[in-house]
Every structure is written in structure tokens, then in C-alpha cells.
Specification:
With 411 residues, the chain is α/β, with parallel strands linked by helices. It is 38% helix and 17% strand. Strand 10, helix 8 and strand 11 form a beta-alpha-beta unit. The two termini are 23 Å apart. 44% of the residues are buried.
């Protein structure tokens, strides 16, 4: 039934659409953009008048290969069979918005239900309704996670309705996207030799930027780890360090930073507690390493507080946690007014559209191919010269093959 509705919807469009909300409708043909006839424009407008939610579903996949137990400065992860949950928002156009949500499913479902009668093509109104409707004055934490999850699904639906990748709907700025490999976690029996081998494998895969964890060990020991990696990789590969808010004071983060700042590190991420704006500012003043913060902040107002307090050189708010693509665009615009780059934290298959469409976006966080050994739901990005290509499929591109769903579904 959904496929039939979708086919009817696309037949009404009659052509591939290159814009909406007053933008000129364009279609690709014979390697050039041609204007669509006024008749086709009218058909397209009729088809895009309204798309509304009909149902909200979740499903969970679990994969059989147990991940290694690892940790950063503040918490452990892995050591079990990985699970991943997807949300599908179904519409009366036969289009499904598919995302990996954050937060409890019940809360995400609650916010999706809030917008059930709204036209999903009115993305700003939809976001405003979720954020302001029937709640106390401040929404943070898991409420914002839920809003961001639903917002991403809405953008997936809009992209599919227009038969365009989301970054094209937003306005593509770059198609070749710098990417880094996030890794370098602590693990049992993992010494400097094993760490170096791991980071070298990322370089061999094609990454020119690699990230490793610090902040769990005494400063000198962590500095030894970073120096060993830098020596092994050479000047062609840049290193990022991430403390995950692990240093209890700015002076301890600065002490570590001074031990490694001669290595031309790409950045020093989250050195102190998320709410220690003053501590971040002290690190920024004392060190010649760019300071990154924001992963645990929310919305443009949280970004404003970081900027006003001179807390970072680079903002890395999480796209879902901060409120979704709709809100992240505002965060990026705010940052650009201060000449501050952004580097969104979180799921790369969703964030790639943000980085592709944001002029002041710096780099895409992603994981190496070996991560797909444990979680094959989404394919690894293909790297060339340290960059990945912007997606070409409609929407966000989060669909999981049906055979994988059937094989690994547990809920």
C-alpha cells in the first residue's frame, strides 16, 4: 500500500524537483539544468502541498559479534553484542522517514505524535511546535534528543519527497567532505604498541585525520601515547585528542596540553566539564591547540553561551542532541557570525548532510571500516585523499536492507 501511494505521489510530481517553498523548480537533463514548464511546476506544487504523519514505528537490530570492551576518560562502552534502533515515520504520501533516534523510544514517539496533524514540509513550524507546544519553558536533555530525532526524520521525508539528498535541499556547499577516524580508546592489554598499530591502520585506510582518547591516565603517560602516535604517523597525518570532559580542572588539562602542543595537534576536544565555560576559556588562552566544546550543549542558546564565554575555537554540538538539522543550521549561522567553525558530533550518516551544506563546517566525524564488522547496518564511507563524497540518494540515506532487518531484528 505504501509503495502504491509513493508511486502515485511521484507520478503527480511528473519530474525530478530541485527546490520548494518558492525556489525555482529545476530538473537534471542531458548534463545540464533545464527549467520545468509552468504546467509541471503547477503539478509539483499540488503534489507538495502537504505531507502528514500516519504512523510511527521502531525496530531494533542486534548483531552477533561482541564488541571489545573499551573506555574513555569517563565511561566504558562495548563488551557486548551491539544493538541499534531505527525509527520510521510513515506518511500519507507513502514516504517513510528513517533515522537512528536518541533517547527513550517512548519520548521520541511522544514528540512525533505532537506533530501528527502538521504539514511536514513546513519544517520550521514543525520544529517550533515540538519545542514550544505543551511543555515547561526550557526543554533540554532527553527532550531535545527526541526533538532532534523527529526533526531528522522530517528532513528525510522532505528529501525523499523532492527526490533529492537532504544536503541538496539545504543547499550544497561542498561535495568532497573531509573526514576523520574516531578511535584510540583505552582497552585491557592495549599499550602504546597496540595503540600505534590501530592508528596506523586508519592512515592506511585513507584517513588524514585521526582522533584518540586522553584524560584517563596521568598526564605524562597520556602525553607518551600521543607522542608515540605522532612519531609513527608522521607529519602527513594530523591527530586530534579527546578528553571527554575528563580533566577535573583547567590547570590539569593545560598541564597535559603543554606536554603535546608542539606536535601540531588538530584539536583538543572537551578538556574540562561541559558547564566549565571559564575552564575551557582558560585552556584556550593558555594553549596553542584549538579547543573544541559543545557536545553536551543544546540548541542555539547553548551555543550562544559557549561563544559569549570564549569557551572554544570550534563548536561540536551533537546534531540530534542539540535539536536536529533545523536547529543546527541556526547554530552554524550563529557560529559563522563569530568566524567559528563547527564540527558536528554524532552519527556520520546523518551528519554528512550538515557538513556538506554548511560553509563553516570543518570536518565529519566517522568510524573506520572495521566498525562495520560489528554493525553492518550502514555501509562504511569510501575515502579518497582523506575525504568522502556527499550522498546522492534521496533523503538522508539511512535505509537498512530488508534482508538485514529480517536476519537481525530483535524488537
Amino acid at each position: 500500500m505504501a509503495k502504491t501511494k509513493r508511486r502515485q505521489f511521484l507520478e503527480k510530481l511528473a519530474v525530478g524537483i530541485g527546490g520548494f517553498s518558492g525556489l525555482p523548480f529545476l530538473v537534471q537533463g542531458k548534463n545540464r539544468l533545464e527549467e520545468v514548464s509552468s504546467q509541471h511546476q503547477a503539478q509539483a506544487k499540488d503534489a507538495l502541498d502537504s505531507i502528514k504523519i500516519t504512523d510511527i514505528k521502531f525496530y531494533t537490530l542486534q548483531f552477533p559479534k561482541e564488541t571489545p570492551l573499551t573506555w574513555n576518560a569517563i565511561k566504558e562502552s562495548g563488551g557486548k553484542k551491539p544493538k541499534i534502533t531505527f525509527m520510521e515515520i510513515e506518511t500519507d504520501a507513502g514516504i517513510k522517514g528513517v533515522v537512528i533516534p536518541k533517547g527513550p523510544n517512548e519520548l521520541v514517539h511522544k514528540f512525533a505524535k505532537k506533530i501528527k496533524g502538521l504539514n511536514l514540509l513546513h519544517v520550521e513550524k514543525v520544529w517550533h511546535h515540538m519545542y514550544h507546544h505543551n511543555r515547561k519553558p526550557v526543554a533540554k536533555g532527553v527532550e531535545l534528543h527526541a526533538i532532534g530525532s523527529v526533526d531528522l526524520a522530517v528532513w528525510d521525508i522532505v528529501g525523499k519527497a523532492l527526490q533529492l539528498p537532504v544536503h541538496r535541499v539545504l543547499g550544497t556547499y561542498r561535495e568532497d567532505i573531509p573526514a576523520y577516524a574516531a578511535g584510540g580508546y583505552y582497552a585491557k592489554d592495549k599499550g602504546i604498541k597496540e595503540l600505534v598499530a590501530e592508528m596506523e591502520s586508519y592512515a592506511k585506510e585513507g584517513f588524514q585525520l585521526v582522533k584518540m582518547k586522553v584524560g584517563y591516565l596521568e598526564a605524562r603517560k597520556d602525553a607518551e601515547r600521543v607522542r608515540a602516535v605522532a612519531k609513527a604517523l608522521g607529519s602527513a597525518i594530523r591527530i586530534m585528542v579527546d578528553a571527554n570532559n575528563g580533566y577535573p580542572s583547567a590547570y590539569e588539562a593545560i598541564r597535559f596540553g603543554r606536554m603535546v602542543e608542539d606536535l601540531d595537534l588538530y584539536w583538543f576536544e572537551e578538556p574540562v566539564a561541559p558547564d566549565d565555560w571559564r575552564g575551557n576559556a582558560e585552556c584556550r588562552t593558555a594553549l596553542d591547540i584549538p579547543i573544541v566544546a559543545g557536545e553536551n550543549e543544546y540548541t542555539r542558546w547553548g551555543a550562544r553561551d559557549l561563544v559569549d564565554n570564549h569557551s572554544c575555537d570550534i563548536l561540536n554540538l551533537d546534531t540530534i542532541k542539540a535539536g536536529g538539522i533545523t536547529e543546527y543550521r541556526k547554530i552554524s549561522a550563529l557560529a559563522s557570525a563569530y568566524h567559528i567553525p563547527v564540527a558536528p558530533h554524532g552519527y556520520s550518516h546523518m551528519n554528512i548532510h550538515v557538513v556538506a551544506s554548511t560553509p563553516n563546517a570543518l570536518v565529519l566525524e566517522t568510524y573506520p571500516k572495521k566498525a562495520r564488522d560489528f554493525n553492518p547496518a550502514l555501509p562504511a564511507f569510501q575515502l579518497k585523499d582523506g575525504k568522502v563524497k556527499a550522498p546522492t540518494s534521496p533523503g538522508l540515506g539511512m535505509e537498512v536492507p530488508e534482508d538485514l532487518i529480517k536476519k537481525y531484528r530483535v524488537g
